[in-house]
Specification:
With 291 residues, the protein is α+β, with helices and mostly antiparallel strands. The protein has 7 helices and 13 strands.
């Protein structure tokens, strides 16, 4: 079942999608806890009730019904872990704990968030500091495992995609079209774009402003998500975040513009003449894939 169909049937499906994207942004690989430095478990939770003692005052975090739980655990040198509970209808909680030298468990930090998206971002930031940094670990040493009842599919795996995967590398070499998703003035845009790949520099270049391709808000874009699809098939290979740099006018802009013009089909005239025409009306975006 496609992600869009699942989202319509299960209100938790969009949360699972956001978790998959966050896993991809941090470069986690799927695996088992045996031999791993740390494990991130993605679970389906039911009727979560956490009673926490903060100094002398207890408080209760209550998430009725179903929710998505994230559990990052490190066992060595001492036990450190973080929990996150995600729900569309109730507060979203993040807790970080660690084992003290005397063996007692201590709450290191807690916070609630109004939306799952904010909580996911908060969880990865807080878990990085209170769990990984505290135990001299990094996200490179973390593997993730998803509970079977969440119905993790190939589409979710695509959301966690890395630029190093065979499918993405093949798409970079053989495809001329990628899909971009970016935000602009509170709106989200998703569209296919023509691009060139500078394999040596590890950069993608996208031209905006010509008659056939104009990206709203391109001149102010700072980041986006790059969606790769199998050529000739309506299936995603990967969805990878990218940082965006708008090239400034000058020698670098001219050089890249000529390379784009050389690859662009059905444009009359010399590449340098085309690049000069673009100079006054187009924006060139340099994309760097983050994982």
């Amino acid at each position: 079942m496609a992600i869009a169909e699942r989202s319509a049937l299960d209100p938790l499906a969009p949360i699972v999608n956001e978790v998959a994207r966050a896993i991809g942004r941090h470069g986690l690989e799927r695996g088992e806890p045996e031999g791993a430095k740390a494990i991130l478990r993605v679970e389906l939770e039911r009727d979560v009730r956490r009673v926490i003692q903060v100094y002398w005052t207890p408080f209760e975090a209550d998430i009725p019904g179903r929710s998505i739980g994230l559990h990052l655990e490190v066992a060595e040198p001492r036990v450190h872990w973080a929990e996150c509970y995600l729900s569309n209808d109730f507060s979203n909680w993040v807790f970080c704990f660690h084992e003290r030298p005397d063996g007692d468990i201590q709450l290191a930090y807690h916070r609630d968030y109004p939306t799952p998206a904010e909580a996911i971002k908060g969880f990865f930031n807080l878990a990085n500091w209170y769990v990984l940094t505290a135990t001299d670990k990094t996200w490179d040493g973390v593997v993730y495992r998803v509970a079977p009842e969440l119905g993790w599919t190939d589409d979710h795996t695509a959301l966690t995609g890395s630029s190093a995967t065979t499918g993405v590398q093949e798409a970079l070499k053989k495809s001329t079209i990628i899909w971009l998703r970016w935000g602009q003035n509170g709106r989200t845009h998703t569209m296919p774009v023509w691009f060139i790949n500078d394999q040596k520099a590890g950069k993608l270049y996208v031209l905006s402003g010509e008659r056939q391709q104009t990206l709203p808000g391109a001149e102010g874009m700072k980041e986006c998500e790059v969606i790769f699809r199998w050529r000739g098939r309506n299936a995603r290979i990967g969805e990878i975040p990218a940082s965006v740099r708008v090239l400034s006018p000058g020698a670098e802009w001219d050089q890249v513009a000529e390379k784009i013009a050389e690859k662009r089909l059905n444009i009359p005239g010399l590449p340098e003449d085309t690049a000069k025409r673009w100079r006054d009306e187009c924006v060139i975006l340099e994309l760097t894939l983050r994982n």
